[in-house]
Automatic annotation (TrEMBL):
<feature type="transmembrane region" description="Helical">
    <location>
        <begin position="71"/>
        <end position="89"/>
    </location>
</feature>
<feature type="transmembrane region" description="Helical">
    <location>
        <begin position="286"/>
        <end position="307"/>
    </location>
</feature>
<protein>
    <recommendedName>
        <fullName>NADH dehydrogenase</fullName>
    </recommendedName>
</protein>
<feature type="transmembrane region" description="Helical">
    <location>
        <begin position="6"/>
        <end position="27"/>
    </location>
</feature>
<keyword id="KW-1133">Transmembrane helix</keyword>
<dbReference type="GO" id="GO:0005886">
    <property type="term" value="C:plasma membrane"/>
</dbReference>
<feature type="transmembrane region" description="Helical">
    <location>
        <begin position="232"/>
        <end position="250"/>
    </location>
</feature>
<feature type="transmembrane region" description="Helical">
    <location>
        <begin position="256"/>
        <end position="274"/>
    </location>
</feature>
<dbReference type="Pfam" id="PF00146">
    <property type="entry name" value="NADHdh"/>
</dbReference>
<dbReference type="InterPro" id="IPR001694">
    <property type="entry name" value="NADH_UbQ_OxRdtase_su1/FPO"/>
</dbReference>
<dbReference type="InterPro" id="IPR052561">
    <property type="entry name" value="ComplexI_Subunit1"/>
</dbReference>
<keyword id="KW-0812">Transmembrane</keyword>
<feature type="transmembrane region" description="Helical">
    <location>
        <begin position="176"/>
        <end position="195"/>
    </location>
</feature>
<keyword id="KW-0472">Membrane</keyword>
<feature type="transmembrane region" description="Helical">
    <location>
        <begin position="109"/>
        <end position="131"/>
    </location>
</feature>
Length: 312
C-alpha cells in the first residue's frame, strides 16, 4: 500500500499550510510598512510580524474565569482551519486551484466568514465587558459587510455564467478587465474586504482607545496568535479573489504578486486617508449604500445579458 503525499503537501505546504502562513506574514509586513510610510513613519522591520507570531506562540495562554473552556480554545483553530481550507479553491500564486468544483465560490465565501463568526463567539463566551461590546460590534459589522462583499463577487460570476472560481478566473483573463466593466463591484469588493478584516477605518470592533482589543481582549498567547494569523491569511485570499475577478485574472506568480501587492497599496492608502468611523457610521452607512450599489450593478449585468441575447 503506497501513501499518496499529494493531499498532505496541498494542505501542509502549498497552497495551504506553510506557504499561506509566510505569505500572510509578508503581506502584514507590507501593509504595516506602507501605512507607516504614508504617515511619514519608518514602520516595522521585515521580520517583525514573524517575531510577533513566535513571541505570542511562546507565551502562556491564560484562561479567564467564567469562559466556556472548550469553545475558548477551539475557536482560534476553527478560524485558522477555515482560512487555510478556503485557499484550496483559489488560484494562489497564479497557479490552478488545488481543488475545484461547481459552486466552490459560495463555499469559499462561507469559509471566509468563519473567522468573523469565531471572533464574535470568542468575545461572547467571556464575561469581560470590553470583549462583549467588541463581539457585538464584530457580529453587527459581519452582517453589514458580508452581504455586499458576496454580491460584489457574484457580479463576475454572473458575467462568466459559472460559480466556479477557476472558470471565473479564466473568463476574466480572456475579456476586458471587469474593473472597467463593473467598477462599482470592484469598489464594493475592496471596501467589503476591509470591513470583513476590520481594517481602518472600519476597526470599530477592536478600537483600542474605547474597548481595549474588542472581542479578543481576553485572548493571549497561542489563541491570539492564531486569530491574528487567520486575519493575515484571509487578507491574502481576499486580495487574490478581487485580483482574479476584476484585474484580468491571475495566471502566473508574477501576475499574482503584482496585482495583489497593487491592491494592498490601495488598501494601505485608504487606511491612511480616513480616520476610524463610529460603529453606527460603519454599519448603517455602508449597509445602505454598499448593498444598494451592488444590487444595482447585478441588475445591470442581468439586463445587459438579456438585451444582448435578444439582439444577437
Amino acid at each position: 500500500m503506497t501513501l499518496n503525499l499529494n493531499p498532505l503537501i496541498v494542505l501542509l505546504i502549498f497552497p495551504g499550510g506553510l506557504f499561506l502562513i509566510m505569505a500572510g506574514l509578508a503581506y502584514e509586513y507590507l501593509d504595516r510598512k506602507l501605512v507607516a510610510r504614508f504617515q511619514n513613519r519608518i514602520g516595522p522591520r521585515w521580520f517583525q510580524p514573524l517575531a510577533d507570531l513566535l513571541k505570542l506562540l511562546s507565551k502562556e495562554e491564560i484562561t479567564p474565569l467564567g469562559v466556556q473552556r472548550g469553545l475558548f480554545y477551539l475557536l482560534p483553530l476553527f478560524a485558522l482551519a477555515s482560512a487555510l481550507t478556503a485557499a484550496l479553491y483559489v488560484p494562489m500564486a497564479g497557479l490552478l486551484p488545488a481543488y475545484a468544483f461547481q459552486g466552490d465560490l459560495i463555499v469559499t465565501i462561507y469559509l471566509l466568514s468563519v473567522l468573523t463568526l469565531s471572533m464574535g463567539l470568542a468575545g461572547a463566551c467571556t464575561v469581560d465587558r470590553f470583549a462583549l461590546v467588541g463581539a457585538t460590534r464584530t457580529l453587527t459589522q459581519l452582517f453589514s459587510y458580508e452581504a455586499p462583499f458576496m454580491l460584489a463577487l457574484l457580479g463576475p460570476a454572473i458575467a462568466a455564467q459559472t460559480w466556479q472560481i477557476r472558470s471565473i478566473n479564466e473568463y476574466a483573463s480572456q475579456n476586458l478587465w471587469l474593473l472597467i466593466a463593473q467598477p462599482i463591484g470592484f469598489l464594493v469588493a475592496l471596501v467589503g474586504l476591509m470591513g470583513k478584516l476590520e481594517l481602518p477605518p472600519f476597526d470599530a470592533p477592536e478600537a483600542e482607545t474605547e474597548i481595549v482589543a474588542g472581542a479578543l481582549t481576553e485572548y493571549s498567547g497561542r489563541g491570539l496568535a492564531l486569530f491574528r494569523l487567520s486575519k493575515d491569511i484571509e487578507l491574502v485570499i481576499g486580495l487574490t479573489l478581487v485580483a482574479a475577478f476584476y484585474l484580468g485574472g491571475i495566471h502566473s506568480p508574477l501576475d499574482f504578486l503584482v496585482k495583489t501587492v497593487g491592491l494592498l497599496l490601495v488598501v494601505a492608502l485608504l487606511q491612511t486617508l480616513f480616520a476610524r468611523l463610529r460603529i453606527d457610521q460603519v454599519v448603517g452607512l455602508w449597509w445602505r449604500i454598499g448593498t444598494i450599489l451592488a444590487v444595482i450593478q447585478l441588475i445591470a449585468i442581468v439586463l445587459g445579458r438579456y438585451v444582448g441575447n435578444l439582439i444577437f
